[in-house]
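call fold(seq) -> tokens
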Amino acid sequence: MDRLLAGQATASNGSLTAVALAAEAGVHRMALLRRHTDLKNEFYERVRTETRRVPEPERRLRETVTKLKETATKLKETVARQKAEIEELRQPVARLTLVGVVLIQDDGQQAQRPAADNVVPLRRPAT
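ret:
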């Protein structure tokens, strides 16, 4: 730990990570991460206090969380826009359906009423 914090790494790339700490200690990284979590936590605490920096894994996680939150916000906005668009499209469909029903029901009564000069009667297609 002391070599890494002093910037005098001999067996690693000198980054302030648990992987570099394991390399400096000559142990497998999983041994440090799983069996010696107390040492890993102590190392990251010393990184925070002695270098006044956020440890690299924590910084990366914070960046990922920020990006995911931004993505979630954009997705919520997209879903809201799509719901509004769907609602806008449903209204004309409902109106057109009602007009179709009225026209079909009104077809038999059309012959009895006189047509206006500017109205062209629609005929049902022959089937």
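The mean pLDDT is 86.
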